[in-house]
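Note to self: keep these together.
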Amino acid sequence: MDFKIINPHHFNPRVLFIMRRFFDQANKTESHSHDFLSLIYILGGEGKYEVGGKIYDVGAGTFFICNPEVTHHRILTGKQRIEEFHVGISDLHLKGLPENYLIPKGEEPLFGLNRYRQEVISCINEIISEQQRNDETSVLMLKCIVMKLLVYIIKERYFSVCRPEKDVIPIERYGKTAMVDNIIAFLNENYMKPISLAQISANTYLSPVYVSKVFKDATGESPINYLIHLRLSKACELLESSDASVKEIARQVGYTDAYYFSKLFKKYYGISPMHYRKAGGKAAFRAHLQNEDEQM
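Structure:
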């Protein structure tokens, strides 16, 4: 399968219902089907289910994906009791599949969860918790979590299809200049906080290697070096305009270790923060360096 199964710009499924119920022998149903997608996860208990004309033994952790028109019903006998989580979904459009189909027609409905099992279970627990919360934002929150659940199922089933060969958001579409401007704005607004290349990359939805390359091509330095220069420049301003201690200034520009800050400052400016302050700031410091050069 060589097509991309999901278009994130047109992924807006409709949640028809979310149901968590206990069933026993008294809750008899005839085999039936729907024109929407049904996701059925067994939370507890044991019994049998007929899905697509085939009988399955089920227990906690059993997961069925019932495409439209796939028949299904519970078969419980004696004291058998099942706790079922059931979601109905419509307006689902995946490339190469009929409307509301999550897996290809005729594929085994008993769905095996391996790589993303914990994530799927976490989504189900989130949905149950949000239903119990039932506040003014719950409808929107439930839709968001169901969408996340669907994405994990899609990743489980179509993993090789979903793995991007290029950046998640193609940079050519939005412009490298805009990306660099956004990174610079992010650093200017957050330089006083702990920042890593991974955080910068996450903020742009691009890989760290690609972010570094594009940023360096545009500015001549890596994002981290830009951040260091920005922090030290802010430190210079504070050394000139305030009586704050070196330790406090280090903290204000994003360094928790004053010794490391002082070492970095001296590496870049050739002078310690205290000597910089005593020299009277940038203008005096530059004049001092110029006099030294003339005497050499």
